[in-house]
From TrEMBL:
The keyword Secreted does not apply. It comes from Tritonibacter scottomollicae. Keywords: Aminotransferase, Hydrolase, Pyridoxal phosphate, Transferase. PANTHER family: ALANINE--GLYOXYLATE AMINOTRANSFERASE (PTHR21152:SF40), AMINOTRANSFERASE CLASS V (PTHR21152). It holds the Pfam family Aminotran_5. One of its GO terms (molecular function) is transaminase activity. Its cofactor is pyridoxal 5'-phosphate. This is Aminotransferase class V-fold PLP-dependent enzyme. It comes from the Bacteria. The lineage of its organism: Bacteria, Pseudomonadati, Pseudomonadota, Alphaproteobacteria, Rhodobacterales. Belongs to the class-V pyridoxal-phosphate-dependent aminotransferase family. Residues 54-340 form the Aminotransferase class V domain.
Length: 405
């Protein structure tokens, strides 16, 4: 009976760590004819975006808007601050640190990666030592990925600032908040971040295709000292909304702008602190369930210390090929799509089928997370994957706040 019945019709659930689920308000805001890009409503609306973006990033400084994905923001941040031959230090807790460093290398920068493995955050003492030994101040920037989406490690960006200051090092601090902005607490100015990059399609709940580079005056000085910056990536005109047409270096990404306006309205109506708390609660429910399942001996969370876990993505291990089996089963039978493992094993290896990830970023709430967890438990049962009991109970205890019930 079960084999012949598919239960995947109905609204599907994309629980991958980006792109994330888009609110109906965002989709509706984008469903319209193209506006006049030279004057009128679009121009006025666009001028409202930078102040609201700054509030999400907790900064008083500048924001440049790009028509690009996160990789574009990576390139923009580096291109506006560094020149060929400059050295960057890249502490790594996963694949995305390598991605950013490869971008730096392709731009002719001299990269030094400090690898802390796939299950540990930056060792800040070692980073501080490395900076202290750089007496000639050869290192011009430290690139820190806040949440590495591949491992779900969340790094201490404020601590990274401390490591730089400890040795009075002048290097710029650049943070990749593509997987954390609008999910995990991030305080650009209070944490002393000079440059921050993010994308539209994760915590900001807008389709992929728009990205943002936030920068302070120290970073702007680095830009001013460069002999040239490629015209398209130069952040100066893009951070100046008065020159709307120049701002986007061509036609504005009209529909993304409408979508972003709607998403920022949703974020501000909830309040950014509350947005962080919601993500934390939902993450705790997921971890509580995963802890129960892992008692069966098969499933394991990649990050053991809860204090080091992202609130937006959870990376999991399940012996190959069960992780892939589970993903396929859930998509086919329940309409639930989980994320693939990334950077944990080579994509053409058999171990690759031993990892998966849950995205819980942006437009997610309690009943969705209970649906996600209920779906996973169903798949574990259907595939006879050993798992401990009481996972859903444990999650409901977190979400209800009733730890005895
Ligand atoms: C998704 C992601 C990126 C890459 O963003 P794209 O939009 O896919 O280019 C970079 N860094 C982190 C931490 C990410 O999560």
């Amino acid at each position: 009976m079960r084999d012949s019945v598919k239960l995947s019709s109905g609204r599907s659930y994309l629980a991958i760590p980006g792109p994330s689920i888009m609110p109906d308000e965002v989709l509706q805001a984008m469903h319209r004819a193209s506006p006049n890009i030279y004057a009128g409503e679009l121009v006025d609306m666009t001028n409202t975006l930078p102040p609201d973006l700054r509030k999400v990033a907790r900064t008083e400084h500048h924001v440049a808007i790009y028509i690009a994905n996160g990789h574009g923001a990576w390139e923009a941040a580096l291109s506006n601050t560094l020149k060929e031959g400059d050295k960057v230090l890249v502490p790594a807790s996963g694949r995305f640190a390598y991605g950013w460093s490869e971008m730096a290398e392709a731009l002719g920068l001299n990269i030094e990666v400090m690898d802390f493995g796939l299950q540990a955050p930056f060792d800040l003492a070692r980073v501080a030592d490395r900076l202290a030994s750089d007496r000639g101040h050869e290192i011009k920037a430290v690139l820190g990925v806040h949440t590495d989406t591949s491992t779900s490690i969340r790094n201490d960006i404020s601590g990274l600032r401390g490591a730089i200051d400890h040795s009075n090092h002048p290097a710029l601090l650049m943070a990749d908040c593509i997987a954390s902005l609008g999910c995990d607490r991030f305080e650009m100015d209070a944490w002393g971040v000079d440059v921050m990059v993010t994308g539209s399609q994760k915590g900001l709940m807008v389709p992929a295709g728009m990205s943002f580079v936030f920068f302070n005056d120290k970073a702007a000085e680095a830009r001013a000292a460069l002999p040239r910056v490629s015209r398209y990536w130069d952040w100066t005109p893009r951070a100046n909304p008065e020159y709307f047409y120049q701002f986007f270096g061509g036609t504005a990404p009209t529909h993304h702008l409408y979508g972003l306006r709607a998403a920022l309205d949703i974020l501000h109506a909830e309040g950014i602190e509350q947005v962080w708390t919601r993500h934390e609660m939902l993450a705790r429910a997921i971890w509580a369930a995963c802890e129960c399942w892992s008692e069966g001996g098969a499933l394991a969370m990649n990050v053991t210390d809860p204090a080091l876990r992202s609130h937006a993505v959870t990376a999991l291990r399940l012996p190959s090929p069960r992780a892939t089996d589970l993903r396929m089963w859930l998509e086919e039978n329940l309409g639930l799509t989980l994320g693939i493992g990334l950077g944990m094993a080579p994509p053409d290896s058999s171990e690759w089928h031993g990892f998966f990830r849950l995205g819980h970023m942006g437009h997610v709430n309690g009943h969705m997370i209970m649906g996600l967890l209920g779906g996973i438990e169903t798949g574990l049962k259907a595939l006879d994957i050993p798992h401990g009991t009481g996972a859903l109970d444990a999650a409901t205890r977190v979400l209800s706040g009733n730890h005895s019930g």
